[in-house]
Amino acid sequence: MKENPPVPDQPTASDVDMSFALDALTEEKGVLHAVLLSTDGLVLAHSGNLPRETADRTAAAASGTLSVAGQVGELAGTHGDVKPRKIIIDLPDSCVLVFGAGHRAVLAVAVAADMTSSLVHVATAATIKTINGLAPALSTRERPGIS
């Protein structure tokens, strides 16, 4: 996914509540929760069925995971500041999908199935559709004092 920084006056995920889209995503079969976060680990929105405290911890962990995965990409021959497009965290009976969602934006989705399940494929397709449908608003501006 191409990451374009937001233009002035363009609504972004840091300006607009995107919870409605995350709630719609959790209506897909097998999708448990969704969190939209900034690459520096702040919650921008989360599905209504997820406690805020869990969303905060998830945002911090997903941000760190995305950063580490970018560094591990060197194993595949990538160089420089390469951001992964999708990370799958396979857990017993569930998985978490972490997607680069736009400029400085990340979308984490919990699925009630292991990564070989067709439910994960359905959740992946629904998440990509959500990301594409909300672009270019799925971006965040740089916070002052943060680089």
Average pLDDT reading? 86
* CA(first)-CA(last) distance: 21 Å
CATH T-level topology: Beta-Lactamase
Low-confidence stretches: none
Structural class: alpha+beta
Major beta sheet summary: 5 strands, antiparallel
CATH superfamily: Dynein light chain 2a, cytoplasmic
Strand order of the largest sheet: 2-1-5-4-3
Relative helix content: 25-40%
Shape: globular
What is the CATH top level name? Alpha Beta
List how many beta strands DSSP finds. Answer: 5
Protein topology:
Layout: H1 19-25, E1 31-38, E2 43-46, H2 52-72, E3 86-91, E4 94-102, E5 105-111, H3 118-134
Antiparallel strand pairs: 1-2, 1-5, 3-4, 4-5
Please, could you describe this protein's structure?
With about 150 residues, this protein is an alpha+beta fold. The protein has a single domain, classed as 2-Layer Sandwich (Beta-Lactamase), CATH 3.30.450. The protein contains 3 helices and 5 strands, in the order H-E-E-H-E-E-E-H. A 5-stranded antiparallel sheet has the order 2-1-5-4-3, with helices on both faces. A hairpin with a 4-residue loop joins strand 1 (about 30-40) and strand 2 (about 45). The chain is globular. This is Roadblock/LC7 domain-containing protein. Pfam families: Robl_LC7 (PF03259).
Compact overview of the structure:
InterPro entries: Mycobact_SerProt_Inhib_Rv3364c, Roadblock/LAMTOR2_dom. This protein is α+β, with helices and mostly antiparallel strands.
List keywords for this structure.
single chain; 147 residues; alpha+beta; Beta-Lactamase; five-stranded antiparallel β-sheet; 3 helices
